[in-house]
Specification:
alpha+beta
């Protein structure tokens, strides 16, 4: 194992760490890269990402969800159609079991020897287990087929900031990595050349203003004992915005 590999895991992987599939059926897949450009030419930094993987104080803590076996990803990102702004925001904070195609066991961060803007690009790997539903069975079949690309895309919140004199993105909340047909990061695939479809993918994002989040928080009837933790997450997102009126947060996919 490379000395530059940092592992965040809820289980010991042991000697299986360096193989594509272990004896228990878990697959090691490339989820994306940081300190790298996405499909839209935006530079995503790794700053703060390790902390997102290890913090345990929030409702959507990655570490807590890993340790409880509840961190999953869906087959495709949630669809916007039919959702109000409020429903759309909260829908993206939730992974629906009915749409889940994989469960995560661990994440690994591998520093490469590739430099972009003076920083070493970091690959984000994950050990995943396909779910026992149709989406999971389809994913497993594709993972086992060397002729089929399998792509993943991050579902996250990010903010724009100035980095070394250029506009860059910092991930402020990691929800999950979903399985998609076309990745936002051209290297987040099992293999093969997908440069063309990556350029043409047009993966989009939603800009969330402070006023939008304020309206969601003001609707007290929406929150109940079952989703009270989501209100805390939205409040945390709101508090992360420096300017009460003009600061924007991005619900983004596909870094």
């Amino acid at each position: 194992m490379s000395a530059n590999t940092v592992i965040f895991s809820n289980k010991m992987i042991g000697k299986n760490i360096n193989v594509e599939k272990n004896e228990k059926g878990w697959y090691k897949v490339l989820l994306g890269e940081l300190n790298a450009y996405n499909h839209a030419g935006e530079f995503y930094v790794i700053d703060g990402f390790k902390e997102l993987l290890t913090e345990t104080d929030t409702y959507l803590s990655v570490k807590n969800r890993l340790e409880s076996g509840l961190l999953k990803g869906e087959c495709t990102h949630p669809l916007r159609e039919g959702h109000s702004d409020q429903d759309w925001l909260t829908r993206n904070l939730v992974i629906h079991d009915g749409f889940a195609s994989h469960q995560f066991m661990s994440f690994e961060l591998e520093t490469t020897d590739v430099q972009v803007m003076g920083d070493y690009t970091v690959k984000v790997w994950g050990w995943i287990l396909p779910t026992a539903n149709d989406a999971g069975r389809s994913l497993k079949a594709d993972l086992d087929n060397p002729d089929v690309n399998v792509a993943f895309s991050i579902r996250c919140f990010s903010k724009i900031f100035n980095y070394k004199g250029r506009v860059a993105r910092r991930i402020t909340k990691l929800i999950t990595y979903d399985r998609i047909d076309i990745p936002g990061k051209k290297n987040a695939v099992k293999g093969g050349d997908i440069d063309t479809i990556t350029r043409e993918s047009g993966l989009s994002e939603v800009i969330l203003s402070g006023s939008t989040l304020d309206k969601v928080l003001a609707n007290k009837s929406f929150f109940n004992t079952e989703n009270a933790g989501l209100r805390d997450e939205i409040m945390d997102l709101r508090n992360s915005m420096s300017n009460k009126i003009n600061d924007s947060l991005f619900l983004a996919w596909g870094n």
